[in-house]
Target: WD40 repeat-like protein
Amino acid sequence: MVHPARVDSIAYSPNGRRIASASKDGAIRIWDSQTGMPVSEPLRGHTGTVWAVVYSPDGRYIASGSADETIRLWDAQTGMPALQPFTGHDDIVSSVAYSPNGRYVVSGSVDGTVRVWDAQTGRAAFGPITGHTDTVRSVAYSPDGKHIVSGSYDSAVRIWDARTGRAAVGPMAGHTQKVNSVAFSPDGTFVVSCSEDKTVQIWDARTGQAVSERLEGHTAAVVSVGYSPDGKCIATGSGDNTIRLWDAQMDRPASNSAAGHSATIWGIAYSPDGKFLASGSGDGTVRVWDPQTGDLSFPPIQMDNNTPVHSIAYSPDGEYFVSGSEDGTVRLWHAHTGQPASNAMSGHTRIVYSVAFSPDGSTIVSCSGDKTIQLWNARTGEPRGEPLTGHTDEVNAVAWSPDGKYLVSGGDDNTVRVWDLTGSQRALEPMAGHTDVVLSVAYSPDGRHIASGSGDKTIRLWDAETRQPVGKPITGHIQSVKTIVYSPDGSCIASGSNDYTIRLWNAQTGEPLSSPIIGHGAPVTSVAFSPTGDRIASGSRDTTVRIWKLPQEKSTQMPRTRPTLDVPVYLHDYPHGVYTIGSDGWIRNSAGHLLLWVPYTHHTGLYSSASLERIIGNIATTKVELTKAVAHGENWLKCRDTPSRGEAHRYGPWPV
Model:
């Protein structure tokens, strides 16, 4: 396949049988991909170098962009022009791409703009998209057609709303020189870019954050990049005359990591049958997982404008789940498809912090930073009556009594309140005792008790009928208690805290049932028991969901405590004993001898407990295996000498 001049762009047809190539000679040529022979005369019409060429999704048309400042559409079978040239750019058209449905073409230009065109008429769909300050060298649509990514000589990558042209994400800054090519991953979760700086960068398409270190290896500018159809590999071409293949999942966790959240997980909930686990996050998505495999049940549900999701709850029959968002809306979704089940429920004027279904599934309750609690008809989405008022500050949590006759709530006014839904006097006398904000509340399964967790680091138990305290405050957490939940049988309370731990408590006595469950690398923001009560799911600011298997017989006594700064670590099939990983990154045995240093970047993904069953998230997971370890001499122990504070900041921990 030979052009008489430089080839600047090539594209496969969707069925893989044809290749279109564009050249400096202004012509487009179509080749048989099996034989390499031309299948038609060159497509001529452009009066300058053709910089970009692409097939339509159905393979019927070819779009091209040229130095003559136009985009042209060609009939792929006949080679004839399909429409008049698209005009509007003021300089070279350097990139073109089709939308997944074939209705639109997007173009990037040396004039610094991105433009979207109606592929049926050749007219601009809306005004030029501006934001880049230099040549737009590459453009691409997301697989769902909702977004456009662009890469520019201004070193930035940007994502735009494909329907309006408004900025959606970015600019993503990381490259130090011109960006030559960009592409979405097949699932739309990531964007990859390559640059004159000789590197490749992978970005989270929803947050714009880099999800890995830059991929380095080329010795000259990287000029083209793309994902394999299965998303497992990235291919790059470079001015160093090499093509390289990269493992696209090299920095992802073991289980479907591409699907992980990219911001704090504020709410999690098991489906009533335990087959699904839903999570809501600050990244503006709701995701539903198979807790056995860690795989997504369907693509993430993306909120409008990437609005953070603060709470989530399943209906009693498992057919729906409800979410509460930072924009003040409550939304209902079909649990098995993720499709909207009704229009957004609007009424709150600030963040919706908590949502819950009534035990009969007919009503949804929500509470908000606007100091109110609202009831909604779960079938129609209409409000049931006026908002419940009484809290004097933000309402952080709300829960139903098992019989559906009462609500309990907790707020920034340091109080717990019970609401009688059967009579005219709905607001009962507040329950005072906490000395800081109340962040979480829960009814016991038998309805006799209420538990509350607070910024004062305590959990309190209350008699649900008299609303008087039961026993002394439960202490143990060293920071705010962010979330609490009763086990299905009511015997246990699980709590999650800003101290990064989950703790289990005897629901009758308030005594701890085990040592703290440690593993999250940031505050624990949500916990949920599985319906069978043998597992706990937790969500955290570290962006991971973790599933923990609980012992069949929970101890009634605390095991021996460990040093505060050390985290217990599970060493697979290693001689029994107590092993910890310290804040310095060293794994030690019970005698304090050093076994292994774990890099800090691997701490969050470390399987640090035999009870930790699964980590779901965009992190590298780490398991320690020392079955073939050998004993070291006395010199090894000298590694325990730690650097001074100044040396640690300057050089990091001592290497082994």
About this structure: The two ends are 55 Å apart (CA to CA).
